[in-house]
Specification:
117 residues, mainly alpha, Arc Repressor Mutant, subunit A, 58% helix, 10% strand, transcription regulation, WH_DNA-bd_sf, DNA-binding
Length: 117
């Protein structure tokens, strides 16, 4: 098992928030689930820029942090759906703020990125 050489500072709220949302697609996953996208295959379609393997890994991490819960329905084929927990719902205002900031500053960021090329 991997052991960190420098201990994590979980006294800092920003560090805690980034630990949960730090993956490239985690905010998009939480946003999609909040809008009713529940099944992994639906998430893969909704977030087509991300590899299914990456979405699955980040779903697992979100589940480990208690942001989402997985419900497994018996039968063949097996059906799995994800739902936000109360803690997952509590992070949605932060996800919405990140989205709004991105929309507000998109043109500026695109110009800066183009200037670097």
């Amino acid at each position: 098992m991997y052991e960190r050489k420098i201990p994590e500072d979980l006294e800092c709220g920003i560090n805690v928030s980034m630990k949960v949302l730090g993956g490239k697609w985690k905010a998009c996953i939480l946003d999609s689930i909040s809008k009713g996208v529940r099944r992994p295959s639906e998430l893969h379609t909704a977030i087509s820029s991300a590899a299914p393997r990456v979405i699955n890994m980040q779903l697992r991490e979100l589940e480990e942090y208690g942001m989402v819960c997985k419900k497994i329905f018996p039968g063949t084929p097996l059906k799995v759906e994800y739902y936000l927990t109360p803690t997952g719902e509590s992070i949605l205002p932060l996800v919405a703020a990140i989205d709004q900031w991105g929309l507000t500053n998109r043109d500026h960021i695109i110009r800066m990125q183009e200037a670097l090329q």
